[in-house]
């Protein structure tokens, strides 16, 4: 079985996400400035009679500012990733590289669990739980992820220029290979997902191993 495969970026959905994030950024920027202005104005002109309203506006402004910073960080990460170019997903016998998460290779041996998220009968993403020690050493694309070192790699199907079933099979099949030596739990989960009778793989013509 040939494990070496590459899948290009489907730029449509990342651009849609960027536009949506830009709207959210503008919305929270206006809210932050508005509540911060109300808080400062209340303290400057009507203190202490409006201290309650001013304090509430201050905390709402802090919340809006925190959300604004988080969304800006996510926007910047996604924008930089699109500018880099290259395949969205690269799969080899050693592991896989997912452009939207990191440039580093995710070894098959670092995978501890697998879960496919689906909504309304449509598979939207596949989540790989990875070893915590490996997650700590991973150079994440996002500055936020680089700070918190999450233990999940989430591959979003709509960001990849290929059918969902094709991507699922390409990511699950290697775990059945004897050369990978996946743990018993991971192998069992991969077998279960590949054999399921619902979702994208149900109607997908399987390749011969």
Textual characterization of the structure:
With 209 residues, the chain is α+β, with helices and mostly antiparallel strands. Helix content is 48%, strand content 17%. The protein has helices spanning 12-45, 51-84, 132-137, 143-148, 164-172, 184-195, and strands spanning 5-7, 89-91, 95-98, 106-107, 111-119, 122-130, 152-156. It has a four-stranded antiparallel β-sheet, with helices on one face. The protein has a three-stranded antiparallel β-sheet with strand order 5-6-7. A hairpin with a 3-residue loop joins strand 2 and strand 3 (95-98). Helix 1 runs antiparallel to helix 2 (51-84). The longest helix is centred in the N-terminal third of the chain and has 34 residues, at 12-45. It is elongated and about 75 Å long. It starts with a strand and ends in a 14-residue tail after the last helix. The relative contact order is 0.14. The model has no long low-confidence stretch (mean pLDDT 86).
